[in-house]
Amino acid sequence: MTQVLNYINGQFQPALSGATLENIEPATGNVYGHLPQSDAQDIEQAYDAAKQAFGAWRQTTLEQRSAILYRIADLIEENLEKLAQAESCDSGKPLSLAKTVDIPRASSNFRFFAHALTQFSSEAHESVGTNSINFTLRHPIGVVGCISPWNLPLYLFTWKIAPALAAGNTVVAKPSELTPVTAFLLAELCQKAGLPAGVLNIVNGTGPSAGQAIVDHPNIKAISFTGGTATGAHIARVAAPMFKKLSLELGGKNPNIIFADCAYDRMLETTLKSSFANQGQICLCGSRIFVERPLYERFKKDFVSRVAQLRVGPPSEAVDLGAVISKDHRQKILDYIALAQKEGGNILTGGKEATVEEHPQGYYLQPTVIEVNDHLCRVNQEEIFGPVVTLMPFDHEEEVIEMANSVTYGLSASLWTSNLDRSMRFGQQLETGILWVNTWLNRDLRTPFGGVKSSGVGREGGFEALRFFTEPKNICISYAPKI
Fold first, then answer.
1. What is the pLDDT of residue 175?
2. Fewer CB within 10 Å: N-end or C-end of the chain?
3. pLDDT value of residue 168
């Protein structure tokens, strides 16, 4: 059994109440560990430790801070195999994905911000003719809260805490209760790297218990949250009256728009990945596929054939899809598939639980393609967050732009075309925070990341993250023009 503990003030400990939660392995459906079910008293203890550590950490030189973050990045790389095994077991994702994407990206997050903090600068403005000058300082906020999701556990956990620490804040962080193990292992690496006690505090538990206590705390001055839109709306309602800074990276229902002039083979390979990577449990997956009519039948035939060949199985094996995160989540996805049929959708492939002989109680699903005839149907409007995509033809640009923009979400979009003018027009008209042209999940960590509409508030990444985790202070000096 894997025993996860809280990490508060440099020490590992259970919840103060002694309460625990079961940790279930999605691939088998079996309980394989326990974690603390923390509450407000644990968050208060973590806050006290973070507050105590803040004064020294904010005064730590940039070079010292950078060196510690670089050391954490190195240790993640050195422990890649152990961390990848834990991530795959905890989340159900293929081990190969954890090894090549999740854990390397976690290391990259620390490495990027270890360097970025030494390049982050403020501004000065000379008021010519007035004998005065303004300059801006950027100070760390203080104690901040970071709440991360279950789909990319260490990847997104580090995406939040690395810039928070780099900017000189101390952190109270909560990983998802469904995938707590790699955050626990990260705490051990932070100890080894020399991160001072209290600078990073990791508290486990459910959202209504531990997460709510972080958001409620009057002296945790900023909240960075990634998760569902409904939860994000709740956080905003609670945090706004306390004037907390908020960064909310929420849901997506992303269009994948394919024109007949695309590079077909490259598009097909990438669309398989953008549809079903991590069992479709990535907020950036292209779950609505729109294909220009002259290409539609060819694409439908080829895509469905390739999807039907994807292998679903134990994450430790050479599979394309592992298990979805939980039994309840699998049922939610199945309910949407049933709804699609009621709405007149045609299941082209998949649509059922996948049978895996080695783990009959695991949470497996067949990758599913649904042909729909109305872009406003619920399965084409609501976030399913699983291995399910819809397929629909279009005839002209104006039509597909209207369909793409018809959802409440606005996180990302993919566009496949060889027409540069068209790509620029779509860049202007699509209501998303990110547009990939002839690619997908092609990330440069310097760029702003986030969505519009119900996909969130604020931006992560690059200097945007460091700006979020700091407060600007302007200083104006008037000087005598003569001695």
1. 98
2. C
3. 98
Give 355's DSSP letter.
P
Q: Cα–Cα distance between 197 and 412 in angstroms, integer?
A: 38
**What is the C-alpha separation between 355 and 346, in angstroms, rounded?**
22
CB-based contacts of 116, cutoff 8 Å, min separation 6: 163, 166, 462, 463, 466
| pLDDT lower than 70: segments of the chain | none
The predicted pLDDT at position 96 comes to 98
Domain architecture of the chain: domains with CATH? 2-250+455-474 (3.40.605.10), 255-437 (3.40.309.10)
Compute φ and ψ for 460, nearest 5 degrees. -105, 170
Per the annotation, the verdict on 377 as an active-site residue is no
β-bridge partners, 326 = none
Please spell the DSSP secondary structure of 69-138, one letter per residue: HHHHHHHHHHTHHHHHHHHHHHH---HHHIIIIIHHHHHHHHHHHHHHHHH----EEEETTTTEEEEEEE
Computed from CA positions of residues 217, 223, 227, 232, in that sequence, does the dihedral angle turn out positive or negative? positive
pLDDT of 483:
78
Q: How far apart are CA 152 and CA 139, in angstroms?
A: 30
Based on the residue annotation, tell me whether 399 is a catalytic residue of this protein: no
**d(C-alpha 276, C-alpha 289), whole Å:** 12
Task: Give the per-residue pLDDT at 361.
Answer: 97
Burial of 138 (0-12, 13-18, 19+ CB in 10 A): middle
Given a contact cutoff of 8 angstroms between Cβ atoms, the answer to whether 85 and 95 are in contact is yes
pLDDT at 275: 98
Cβ pair 201, 171 in contact under 8 A: yes
Which pLDDT score, from 0 to 100, does residue 481 have? 86
DSSP character string of 249-298:
E-----EEEE-TTS-HHHHHHHHHHHHHGGGG-STT---EEEEEHHHHHH
Determine the Cα–Cα distance for residues 409 and 252; give it in Å rounded to an integer: 5
Residue 43: enclosing H or E segment and its boundaries? Answer: helix 40-58
Q: Which of 283, 292, 377, 383 is catalytic?
A: 283
Catalytic residue (choose from 25, 177, 249, 371) = 249
